[in-house]
Amino acid sequence: MSEDLRPLTAGSVDADVETLSEADVDVGIHRILEPDGTYDPDAVPDVDDETLRDLYRWMVLQRVVDERATKLQRRGRLGTYASGRGQEASIVGSGFALDDADRVFPYGREAATLLIHGLSLRDLLLYWRGIEDASKMEGVNAFGVAISIGSHIPVAAGTAWGMKLDGADAVAFANLGDGATSTGAFHEGINFAGVIDAPAVFFTQNNQYAISLSFDGQTAADSVAQKAVGYGIDGIRVDGNDVLAVYEAVSAARDRALAGNPVLVEAVTYRRAAHTTSDDPNRYRDDEEVEEWAERDPLERYREFLRAEGLYDDIDEEALREEVDEMFDEAVDAADDFAEREVSEIFEHLHAETPPELRRQFDEFEDLLERRPDMYDYIERRPKG
Amino acid sequence: MEATIVEAINDALHEEMGNDDRTLVFGEDVAQSGGVFRATEGLLDEYGGDRVLDTPLSEIGIVGAAVGLATYGYRPIAEIQFSGFLPPAFDQLVTNASRIRWRTRGELTAPMTVRTPYGAGVRALEHHSESLEAAYAHIPGLKVAVPSTPHDAKGMLISAVRDPDPVLFMEPKHVYRSFREEVPEGTYTEPLGKAAVREEGEDVTVVAWGAMMHKTREAVDALDDVDVELVDLRSISPLDRETVVESVKKTGRCVVVHEAPKTGGFAGELIATINDEALMYLEAPVNRVTGFDVPVPLLAMEDFYIPQPPRIEEAIRETVDY
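ok -> structure tokens follow
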């Protein structure tokens, strides 16, 4: 460019330009039970007493499963495990709002959501034992667990698209954490769902940490819910430690989604355990904070509600825990009884028809295992359970 | 000092952060928690939050930002926590990092390092065990380094950080802590693009890299009656053709061992290279021991997938007896 074509000056001007800031998108939090357990009786969702008790039973189940699975991992009888401790209200409240026809896209911490949806506890344990078969998600309308964070979000949008085309009375329900909201897949998937009016609910359990990174390191936004605005979809922010509020919020989100408005729900909660059993949270968060959130425990809060409603008397806490323990014992036994592994299984199911080269690789390997039984000395079939 | 691979990497990072204040270390969980494998431990305390950063969970953001920093004059050292999470960032490696020098005729360059633990064998979850070095080696302009020892890990990482072009530095996490060796104090470099002959021998050349070096050595040690020349490739790209070809010319036989799937794996490139340059010296077809053409299985079966020493032994013997 020649000199005389350049502007003579280029600097800042004192302009009065309207800006949109996040303060303009202030999302209130939906809550029914206050942290101290008090509530407005008129705000309680209209569900029968048995359902109200069931919500509690499932939260206990989630907690016991997490405690016992973590112990099993410590004894080398499970692989890495991701606990949902502290997030029971989000996990159970959302699970309860779903219909069997809804397809769940799990993110790993939500055992009870999958169990409510029909997964067997045995298969849940097999999955954490690193046994391929469990990824079938037999009897459950669910996609595989999204270990690669956020990778399932566009897939959920696509499934929702299909549901819309089919006129199905169902939604795609993607579970995710706050970390996933930083991935490209989150933004692309949600934008896509918005454009095609997909019946999808993107349920973010904002548990405040993605491994060591706290929420304010994850995003400069005040909330996840407000991000919905940028994509032209609906946002809901809910107290993730209030099981009734989550149940109500996800039910509402589901209705909105069915009507062609995808919804981004943010359940504000806290991961009280480590990221996984491989993680030591003492390196990045202090006891005071953990204590603070322990006081907002979803089970305790809900127990106060049940007491106030006169429903807790019907629950024998000890018997309930025993019952869940028993279920867990049976599931461990069933997992232990799972048929001995066959080498062929790693070659199966990759293609509808195994190509000749892969068949050759399997045959050669089988032959080698026969000729060199010492191979097994090098191959530890851990954990056997 | 005696160090494991992961300690040697930590030491290299400390060295280069101290040597050049335009180096930055960032990625998921690298700062406050010191990395999930502790590779970046102590860096935050020593160099502060402006140079050692925990990033959002965003592989595209991490690698793309590294390109932006590097083309602007910084020396980014980014970590992708597990190589199985690199695929979203593949676009940034292909579209920007690897070709920026070429595209701008040298006006912009991307002297950046992406470190990533790779490979199976640590009982991790799905997507934590991939070994996709051949895919990255296929990107023109991107260097791919895979050290197998603490000494090399430190020296090669320093070379990677100082390299004027982008380097993908793949760390064999299966042997991150499995042994120690003497690692010199202070700064030293080991070249990228140069293989190392670990053992000289006359009967057969065996080429391996990363975690498979150790499985291969175990196999070689068990073969008392075979005189193996063991070549540690160390860099997948650029490839040290000369060391491999000269060794094969001497022994007349070759076995390549890698953990990645067979089809399209890097052994194929090595075999083609040997065919090009040493065909007339061969006394047997070049053999390969690899992972299978399947995803790395979940932990209950992953050890079946990994080439174990007996498999490697059998292949070496087959090649020698041909």
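The two ends of chain B are 44 Å apart (CA to CA).
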